[in-house]
Amino acid sequence: MDFSNRDGRRDDSLLQGDWRVPGTGGPSFGRATPKPSLGPAALHLGARRASAAQERSRARELVSVAKEQIAATFEDVRFGRNINVASLWPMVSGITASVERHPGAIMGVTRMRDRHEHTYVHSVAVCGLMINLARRLKLDPTLHHDIGLAGLLHDVGKARVPTSLLDKPGPLTAEETAVMRTHCELGHDILIGGDERLSDLVLDVVLHHHERLDGTGYPDFQEGNSISTYVRMAAICDTYDTVTSDRPYGLALSPAEAIEMMTEQPGQFDFQIMSVFSGMIGIFPVGSMVRLESDRLAVVLDDPEGDPSQPPVCPFYCIVTKQALPWRVSPPGHDPIVGIESPDRWRMSNWREIRSGVLAQFKEGPFV
Ligand SMILES: [Fe+2]
Ligand SMILES: [Fe+2]
Questions:
Q1: Residue 37 has pLDDT above 60, yes or no
Q2: For 93, which of 1, 12, 315, 360 is 20 to 30 Å away at the CA?
Q3: Which domains does the chain have, with CATH numbers?
Q4: What spacing in Å lies between the alpha carbon of 123 and ligand 1's midpoint?
Q5: CA–CA distance, 133 with 89 (Å, rounded to integer)
């Protein structure tokens, strides 16, 4: 492993795991995992403004229940039972309300997931991103629920793909890729064969979310104007959430790297929707690595409540002393962010562990 700083000098302190200062990090923080139950707070449908902390708490509860419900939906599909779409509507309503109160809360909470729950949290994350994007694009509000449901169900066909492929710790072979790609048609078939008639919008997204404007997608090799606005939105939200997530193989990209990568894909994603999406993700997305004025590296913890350029952060490394730091929240503006940093530039091989550890600790509640 190479862990050098930007001057090319090797820094072994972060290789030893000693960034995890005793009592400030690690897997156990002495708090019980919240029991997933959908309380009235999570399902509150009003658009009342909430602080980031309040909404994060609600969003945690909501995501916890939503991922269990989508897991149960996948289980129904695996065992050949019809999907109970009506049972999903309250979830979509809850996520819509959360996005209306605080657009970034669901995005922040869904950044944390483990490998085995990836598909379910991904479904919830894409649902939240789609609703958020629909609002940004000022689409007809009466469509927001269908747009959210499309995000929630877009990968339901994966319930019929062998889990050995979904969890395979390495690249898929050509044959395995072909099997994986059937999930779009499988999902479409599952939904049109169900008891409840779903809208064309939902069916279109489920079938076509892997189509690309330049015709390089699948399953129908659609291109250009034949691809609907909703499918264009889904392609962006789905790809963004996939590449910024820890997967069985490969490092997740930071949100900023993902936006850069997708913007540089010539002709794949709708440029105008992409630029609205970039603005929605924000200047310093949750989970980004940033540099502070004090020459410390930090993880962005949450969306800003005030100044959009100064979200709460957790410094974890001092560039000057080359020492790991105890994890403490730096209040917004206390030590201003001077720019986003790339883990690659720092050759930080354990960045993924650092980010996951810091966000997991913050997820359990604010720490000081
Ligand atoms: Fe998919
Ligand atoms: Fe997906």
A1: no
A2: 360
A3: 1-30+284-368 (no CATH), 32-282 (1.10.3210.10)
A4: 10
A5: 19
